[in-house]
Amino acid sequence: MHVSAIPAFADNYLWLIHDEQHAVVVDPGDAAPVLAMLESKNLTLDAILLTHHHADHAGGVAALLEKFFVPVYGPANEKIAGVTDKVDEQVKIHLPELNLELSVIDVPGHTAGHIAYYAAEQQWLFCGDTLFAGGCGRLFEGTAAQMTVSLAKLAALPDATQVYCAHEYTLSNLRFACAAEPDNAQLQARLIVEQDKRAHGIATVPSTIGMEKATNPFLRYKQPTIEQQLRLEGRLKDRQSLAEITADVTVFAALREWKNNFR
Ligand code: ZN
Ligand code: FE
After folding, report:
1. Which residue from 27, 24, 21 is spatially nearest to 205, judged by alpha carbons?
2. Which of 18, 22, 53, 57 is catalytic?
């Protein structure tokens, strides 16, 4: 069984899990490149998995359903046209054609009902727009507090877990990460490696949970150096103690806000 990236739009990755015959697609924002890959690899589509309602993730569902009569899994707390099976953390998904077991992780923050799919046996995580390589999703519908809880759940997965996120945002994320944590040597090294990949047209995704824990500021916001950097930037003006700050996610919120305005 493999996971293949299907590039779409400017910087999306749609993920195709497949063996020699069967396939499941994660977040088909566009049907055309999915249909093209299914045809070129001679695969039958058996299910669609959606992480959240945004069009760049769910926009291709209707067109795929015209060709394949398959279940569509989606978040219990979001309304998405075409979804047949609303799932949340209580649910385990079994896809018999691929002999694949997936658990669902509730990860609100980017959207109110965002979910991630985790294959424990393969150590694959499909996390949509929640955790990115070197960054995290914007807070469109959820709060910083929700996002910290969501990211902590993902960070608790095994270090070797492959992180299949939905966008190629890595270089801009890592440039911000270097501003937030300038003394992180592993981060500097990663930036060079990922820049080289992009220069050769290679995807920087999947990442791993271990790499994200070592270099992603949104998993590392409790590091005192990040708090210090936010103060230097004038983004933490009050005089709260660090304990108070980490408890009420002020640092995380300030970090996310800084990234929103970072060029
Ligand atoms: Zn999104
Ligand atoms: Fe997206």
Report:
1. 27
2. 57
